[in-house]
Specification:
It is built from twelve helices and twelve strands. By secondary structure, it is an alpha+beta fold. The strands form two sheets. Strands 2-3-4-6-5-1-12 form a seven-stranded mixed β-sheet. The radius of gyration is 23 Å and the shape is globular.
Length: 354
């Protein structure tokens, strides 16, 4: 594991440039579904034009109309005229006002009119000054089709995992973790605005997302205008208060307050050995985590390569698998699943490993 690195994505400057560029290309529209039509891979908004639907927005339309996604995609590929008729039937039969979020020529989200737009440029404006003040390192960041992630560590906040006595394994003498935080957001209804604590293993550069400190769902009042969407003064004030809370949470998350509690969990996990066949242990924990067969194979490989068989090593094998992931979003999910392994109780671990 020593020569591996986290899935880094963008530098902070690249992230800032991407957020700025996207903010200039975004528009929101509120429209009655009777003013909307799906034609092929485009969403036509009356008086606004046609927008190319992202895969995420296609899924939201499928959910809204009650069309199973598998059948939706089959019509999309093999019978686009039938898809148009199906969607139009439900858009006309059960009309509602929806928010269509666009970027350039793409329709990136199909949402409730009550969706509260807490956007990436506002998040960056709130948290970047705190990150600069604390002199943290941005180890990984990205803006994907559905989410933005900023992962930072404060190299002044360090601690060691205690493997206990009787370990001859080399890593046990140098298992240091660095404390940090993850700030993430979705502008398209793929998740909440949130701050989570995080650790970075200095031994193998694995990131592990520990727990959520702040979460704000994108729910607000119905918008009282038609056409292009403009926020009123009250909404702006509410959003400002949310981002101030977010800023304070980031400031608190990057302290020693919760670090020791997490180290204690890691040390406890390091002392719990895998007593049976590691293949079976990985199979059992993979069912708990609901990972794919391919990911299960990667977890087993990284566990064996790590050279030690215990609960902490298994958790790190899961987070190491994040680096093999094809997408940044899935990598982030696997970084969080590693902590699920650490959090297994003694009785749960006995089922996995005894």
């Amino acid at each position: 594991m020593k020569d591996k690195t986290v899935k880094t994505g963008l530098s902070l400057n690249e992230l800032a440039a991407k957020i700025t560029s996207q903010s200039e290309a975004k528009n929101d529209y509120i429209a009655d579904t009777r003013q909307l039509q799906v034609i092929g891979d485009q969403l036509v908004v009356e008086d606004q034009g046609a927008f190319d639907l992202t895969n995420h927005a296609q899924g939201q339309i499928a959910t809204y109309t009650g069309i199973p996604r598998r059948y939706y995609d089959r019509m999309r590929a093999d019978a686009p005229a039938l898809l148009t008729r199906n969607v139009e039937e439900w858009f006309q039969k059960e009309p509602k006002r929806r928010m269509v979020r666009t970027m350039d020529t793409s329709a990136r989200a199909f949402l409730s009119e009550k969706y509260r737009a807490l956007d990436n440029e506002e998040l960056a404006e709130a948290v970047l000054p705190v990150l600069l003040e604390k002199d943290v390192d941005v180890v990984s960041s990205e803006v994907t089709e559905t989410r933005m992630h900023i992962k930072v560590v404060d190299r002044k906040l360090r601690g060691r995992v205690d493997w206990g006595e009787g370990h001859n394994f080399g890593r046990a003498a140098d298992d240091e973790i660095i404390w940090g935080a993850v700030i993430s957001n979705s502008e398209v209804g793929a998740g909440s605005l949130q701050v989570s604590t995080m650790t970075l293993s200095s031994w193998c550069s694995n990131l592990m997302i520990v727990g959520k400190e702040f979460r704000k769902y994108h729910v607000g009042r119905a918008v009282d205008v038609t056409g292009e969407y403009y926020r009123d003064e009250t909404r702006i004030a509410d959003d400002r208060a949310t981002f101030l809370k977010l800023r304070d949470t980031v400031d608190h998350a990057l302290t020693e307050v919760a670090m020791q509690e997490t180290l204690d969990k890691y040390s406890l996990a390091a002392g719990r050995k895998i007593e049976n066949d590691p293949v079976k242990a990985v199979e059992k924990v993979s069912k708990i985590l609901r990972v794919s067969d391919e990911e299960q194979g990667s977890i087993l490989r990284h566990l064996v390569e790590g050279g030690s068989l215990n609960q902490w090593s298994l958790a790190n094998a899961v987070t190491r698998t994040a680096e093999d992931s094809k997408t940044y979003d899935r990598a982030t999910e696997l970084e969080a699943l590693g902590m699920n392994v650490v959090d297994l109780t003694a009785s749960q671990w006995k089922v996995v490993a005894a």
